[in-house]
Amino acid sequence: MRALQGLRGLGAVLPLLLLCFLAALRRSLEHGLSTAAPFKSLPVQEEMMTKYSNLSLESHNISVTAAPFTSLPVQEEMMTKSSNLSLESHSISMTAAPFTSLPVQEEMMTKSSNLSLESHSISMTEHSNMPVEKNITLERPSNVELICQFTPSGDLNSVNVTWKKGDKLLEDNYLVNATGGTLYTQHRVAVINSKQMGSYSCFFGEKKQQRGTFNLKVPEINGQNKPLITYLGDSVVLMCKCQDCLPLNWTWYGGNGSVQVPIGVPVNDKYVISGKHANETRLKITQLSEDDQGTYLCHAIFELGESEGHVKLVVLSYLVPLKVFCAIAAEVVLLVAAILLFEMYTQKKKKPSDDGKEFEQGEQLKLDDSNGIENSGPRHRKNESVGQ
Amino acid sequence: MPPPGGTPPPHPPPDGGWGWVVVGAAFISIGFSYAFPKAVTVFFKEIQLLFNTTYSEIAWISSTMLAVMYAGGPISSVLVNKYGSRPVVMVGGLLCCLGMVSASYSTNVVELYFTMGLICGLGLAFNLQPALTIIGKYFYKKRPVANGLAMAGSPVFLSTLAPFNQYLFNTYGWKGSFMILGGLLLNCCVAGSLMRPVEPKASTESKNKVGVRETDCSMKKRQKKLSVWEEINKYLDFSLFKHRGFLIYLSGNVIMFLGFFAPVIFLAPYAKDKGIDEYSAAFLLSVMAFVDMFARPTVGLIANSKLIRPRIQYFFSFAVMFTGICHLLCALAEDYTSLVVYAVFFGLGFGSVSSVLFETLMDLVGAQRFSSAVGLVTVVECCPVLLGPPLAGKLVDETGQYKYMYLACGAIVVLASVWLLIGNAANYRLLAREKKKSIHTKESQETEPLKTSQSPSVNIKSGKNEEWKGAEVNSSERETNI
């Protein structure tokens, strides 16, 4: 088992016990069941910082805080600075106290995927007027490190640093550092599900607050920007695609007005959902009618949330292009008739004079036969005019 | 100095007047023929999605259209030889319309191959060859200019059709667009109706009478000798394969076309590979088309000048060499600016080659046999034109870099140009020698009628302008030097 392998390098006893506990609980905790052992007193906080490389590592952190829990959220962070490691991490945060209204929050990394650490930073100066924003796209659960740098004009130490998620003030789990005239603040978030997504902002200063915002979002889905034009009785394929991501699942909704009806739930011939690769989905609609017009939404479900794309469908009748075709065909017929008539008219004008010329030509040719090639004069002129 | 041109047609070409209207009509026909297969690629993404196929299967539609357009050359030539340009172009327009309208009702890829590829391709073939042929019938002195102007139709139509197709797609979807495009292709019929036959009926009859008399008098031995071979030659002149100039042209062109079109097709992917964004990459092609548009008539004018026209074969070889060197230098291009410069020079080279491409053929074989010649040339060129891009694509896949493909294409084109240069130099020299010989023999046999020659038209050459007469004597020699 993987659990046993990695422990060889560690040699910590306490985590070992907890490890066994965890291994046993693993399956049940996957489904979000919460167990809380009544730890009555001390905050136990342990963090295992592992800076091993090239080891298959398991680290298990449990941070347990027990304190006046009336309103505090329990927050546990897992700091892992492991690179090139296949990592399994499990963390449980348990709260113990009057449990009456507290939400038990436990997050468990059940999908032991590579938890990578992403680091994003914003730098600001005192005089930047516009709030600085950075969009971060996350598909899988990972650790995100948000760093704000601030260069104040005055004294470093007098600047107050705060972090907010949305509108909620964050109490801890951020570091502040000052080196060489620049203030650094770092906030780490373990993004495991959609609750950790959102906007995180760092604020510098009291009176004139400088603000930097990190927007954590799920990847965007590309539907089709321009409406698809189709015709009655036709079939059409709507496609939604995600560039570099693999959603867990796709669903389609048809929007007629504001009502969104899921498509494909009663499976019938009219709608066929398929997809060649995991990052795209196709909806084939046959026997189109006027009612099928409108906007279709494709929902992509990620671990960290949902994202959707739009495809607009327009259904026209065949008469629309047919009218254009008939107009062009009529124009062509008119032009051809006009040109041919014009030609016949101009030829008629020449015809009476042509007959006389032909007779003369025949005579000249007879002469030429006998004389050879030299007799060029009169024939030259006549042929010129005929040729034109 | 070598003689100025090929055999002139039995009637002196008007070299103006209605001829310029015919150039306009040829502009439309040639424009549709070359631009249409490339411009329909706008619809392919949608069709691929609907018919659930791979992109390469859809791309074959365009290739099939081009292939049938080239391969249909001989059929077109036979029909033009028999019926003249006008009816063939009109039938071509109707075929194109039929093909596109039935394509809009198709339900799978195979039907598209048949309707768009085969029927529409055949219609386009019926547009291309007659348009080229009729220019030769209407122009002689100003023929390079007329050719250049008519060939300019290709880039003009391409730059107009591509965005227009996009607009049609956004407004009518692919089905409606195909129907409307079918209607637009009917305008080829308008172009066809403008292509008045050169010989008015009256003189044709007199010519026939004379021809018959001549055959009676001087060619009694040749009577009733129409073997199967000669019957076939009446429709499609296979004896061209014994024509030295034709063979040089054909071989040179086959080599050239192997490496000619691939650089155009891979320009945008090459740019994207270098990190340039999609729109700038597409802009490169627009730059090329724009330069091409203006290069063709300009080069036509240059080719018409007194200095160049007698040596037009050399001019063609140099234009090909210029294009080849452009491709070789493209391998050195690193950033966007150098690619734009390459696009400009490539447009220039591409335009100059295309402008005199058919003019040189007319110059070699003469306007009489041009219609058969162009049919035979296109059917043979079908192979390298179709094989070139996939082979280039394979080279890119193997080496992983576009640079080597450009080097290879450049080398092939330069090789073709060298071959054409040597071949034509030899040809010119041999022709001059033969001309000298025939002048000597002619001087000694002045009073006798002309020696037996293949075309009866030579006998009626008298009576035209003096220049004409001189040209005819020389060109008849060229014709006989098969």
UniProtKB/TrEMBL annotation, chain A:
InterPro entries: Ig-like_dom, Ig-like_dom_sf, Ig-like_fold, Ig_I-set, Ig_sub
A Pfam family it matches: I-set
CDD domains cross-referenced by the UniProt entry: Ig
One of the GO BP terms on file: dendrite self-avoidance
Chain positions covered by the region annotation Disordered: 348-388
Annotated Gene Ontology cellular component terms: axon; plasma membrane; synapse
Membrane-crossing residue ranges in chain numbering: 318-342
All residue ranges annotated as the Ig-like domain in the record: 131-202, 219-317
Keyword Translocase (UniProt): no
Membrane topology field: Single-pass type I membrane protein
Alphabetical UniProt keywords: Cell membrane, Disulfide bond, Glycoprotein, Immunoglobulin domain, Membrane, Phosphoprotein, Repeat, Signal, Synapse, Transmembrane, Transmembrane helix
Main location: membrane
Composition skew (Basic and acidic residues), residue ranges: 352-369
Range of residues in the leader sequence: 1-28
Subcellular location: Cell membrane; Synapse
GO molecular function: cell-cell adhesion mediator activity
Oligomer status and interactors: Interacts with SLC16A1, SLC16A6 and SLC16A7.
Protein's name according to its UniProt entry: Embigin
Lineage of the organism: Eukaryota, Metazoa, Chordata, Craniata, Vertebrata
Automatic annotation (TrEMBL), chain B:
Signal peptide residues on this chain, from the entry's feature table: none
Domain (Major facilitator superfamily (MFS) profile): residue spans on this chain: 19-435
One Gene Ontology term, aspect cellular component: nucleoplasm
Residue spans crossing the bilayer: 17-36, 58-80, 87-106, 112-132, 144-164, 176-195, 246-268, 280-302, 314-333, 339-358, 404-426
Main localisation: membrane
GO biological-process terms attached to the record: plasma membrane lactate transport
Compartmental location: Basolateral cell membrane; Cytoplasm
Topology in membrane: Multi-pass membrane protein
Keywords in alphabetical order: Cell membrane, Cytoplasm, Membrane, Symport, Transmembrane, Transmembrane helix, Transport
This protein's record includes keyword Transmembrane helix: yes
Entry's Gene Ontology molecular function annotations: identical protein binding; lactate transmembrane transporter activity; pyruvate transmembrane transporter activity; symporter activity
Composition bias, Polar residues: 450-462
Family: Belongs to the major facilitator superfamily. Monocarboxylate porter (TC 2.A.1.13) family.
Subunit (UniProt): Homodimer. Interacts with GRID2IP. Interacts with EMB; interaction mediates SLC16A7 targeting to the plasma membrane. Interacts with isoform 2 of BSG.
Full protein name: Monocarboxylate transporter 2
Upper lineage: Eukaryota, Metazoa, Chordata, Craniata, Vertebrata
